């Protein structure tokens, strides 16, 4: 079943362009669904783990493109927000399995007052049966415990949703390029392999990103923790000086997600901050970014056409690869991380 790959995780990482392409076919379905959402004045995402990170990206997209106030709530913390829901609230449940107990519990509550939409990968799962509206992500079965292709598929559905709500034709067009951008990243796997050999010694990693790249930093750090057992901490780049900068010292690897765009300049100054304190910076940025090439000792180069807004769909791929190869270097099985299950059916 692994079709020649060593692990399901690497097979699934390599299936991501297809997963995005297949999920883009949901456009018409999403167009039909949102016809019912004219009266929506607030959106709440409810999710856990990786699906929570996809939701955070959704908040940024929906608020900045469609101007609809949007919250992101961890399913396990949902009860505090219950009384704020009403008939003009749309509650979106993101889940690859469609069976996560905390999300299901919140869904039953939300169904009493509000419109509910599930963005789910597993057809016929509990969330698809109980949500009022469903968008099916088209990643195909995901066996590796660490979510990879389901994450980019969730993002694809969210981008379609936000772009259609905002009637943003430019973004809708840009999305069609994403599968090719992902495949380009996958061609450069050797760079990531050699990076993983140089950094697998680390006990701690930091991941920094700003704006659309902040959830990417969180997700990159989660992938590292769950399979390599290295402590990875994702941070909004601007929050660094409000505490964690105290932890930055000689030799600590800091992954900086820095695509071209509005937040580039500020993220660059954060990069310089950590570098001057001795951090080993691993930057993920545009291939033609000359300033980055000068300032960062190590840069993974991505097609410059990947703009800041679509970066979350592409920049996560090298971070998944980095976690995978570090895990291989350390001799652990990335498909079966200790203590974790693919589907969390207890609260
Ligand atoms: C991380 C991972 C978990 C899940 C979380 C939610 O790689 O897979 O963090 O994202 O348990 O699961 P779903 O999306 O099935 O609700």
Automatic annotation (TrEMBL):
GO terms (molecular function) for this protein are: carbohydrate derivative binding; glutamine-fructose-6-phosphate transaminase (isomerizing) activity
Give the reaction(s) catalysed: D-fructose 6-phosphate + L-glutamine = D-glucosamine 6-phosphate + L-glutamate
Where it sits in the cell: the answer is: Cytoplasm
Entry's Gene Ontology BP terms:
carbohydrate metabolic process; fructose 6-phosphate metabolic process; protein N-linked glycosylation; UDP-N-acetylglucosamine metabolic process
**UniProt superkingdom:** Archaea
Q: What does this protein do?
A: Catalyzes the first step in hexosamine metabolism, converting fructose-6P into glucosamine-6P using glutamine as a nitrogen source.
Q: How does it assemble?
A: Homodimer.
Q: What is this protein called?
A: Glutamine--fructose-6-phosphate aminotransferase [isomerizing]
Q: Which residues of the whole protein does the chain here span? A: 249 to 595 of 595
